[in-house]
Design brief:
single chain; mainly alpha; two-stranded parallel sheet; flat
């Protein structure tokens, strides 16, 4: 391989796995080339690492039952308001499903606590973080979810600008995207769409 590489001096990038003989051949035959890891082996290594980690903590993983497709969904429209867009409706449903799953985990923690288990034992059994347990153990009901204050890279940070531009008549999402990108927005269009959806 080193001889073949030396016979092809125009090679500037070599994608390879970490096998030692390949590295040696590249050093001897194409020292000028930049070596990069190939995607296949990166993904293979990532998959192996994830599988190993999940098998290590398998006993602490909990399976949350999915919320029934139409359970608790309300398609009522508030008086004096427009119906929600599909994007906005789906976002609300996802938030509701996550909150329901969190309520199930909270109820499990409270049952284990009532049975006399220590915080450490509850952490081992449920996989719930120390920070969440610190808040949940003394609480009698699931604490409300804290919302992160909008930062310049988040679409919510530009909500006032977007609302003003929308009422001025600029209702072109791509144009609004360009405007807030000029103001510092670094997110994707779907984040903006979620803010514009209502």
């Amino acid at each position: 391989m080193a001889a073949w590489l030396a016979a092809h001096p125009g090679i500037v990038i070599i994608s390879r796995d970490r096998h030692g003989p390949y590295a040696d051949a590249v050093r001897r035959g194409a020292a000028q080339a930049t070596e990069v890891a190939d995607r296949f082996h990166l993904l293979l290594n990532l998959r192996g690492a994830v599988q190993q980690e999940l098998s290590r903590v398998r006993s602490r993983l909990t399976v949350v039952q999915p919320v029934a497709a139409n359970a608790g969904r309300s398609r009522q429209v508030r008086v004096g308001s427009r119906p929600r867009s599909p994007v906005s409706q789906r976002h609300a449903e996802v938030v509701q499903e996550r909150r329901a799953a969190q309520a199930q985990r909270f109820a499990l923690v409270k049952r284990l606590q009532a049975s006399g288990q220590t915080g450490q034992a509850i952490m081992r059994e449920t996989g719930i973080s120390r920070g969440s347990l610190r808040k949940w153990l003394p609480a009698s009901e699931l604490p409300p979810r804290k919302r992160m204050a909008p930062r310049p890279g988040m679409p919510d940070f530009y909500e006032e600008h977007l609302r003003r531009r929308w009422t001025e008549g600029c209702q072109d999402g791509r144009r609004l995207m360009a405007e807030i990108q000029a103001l510092g927005f670094v997110g994707c269009y779907s984040g903006l769409a979620r803010v514009l959806a209502p």
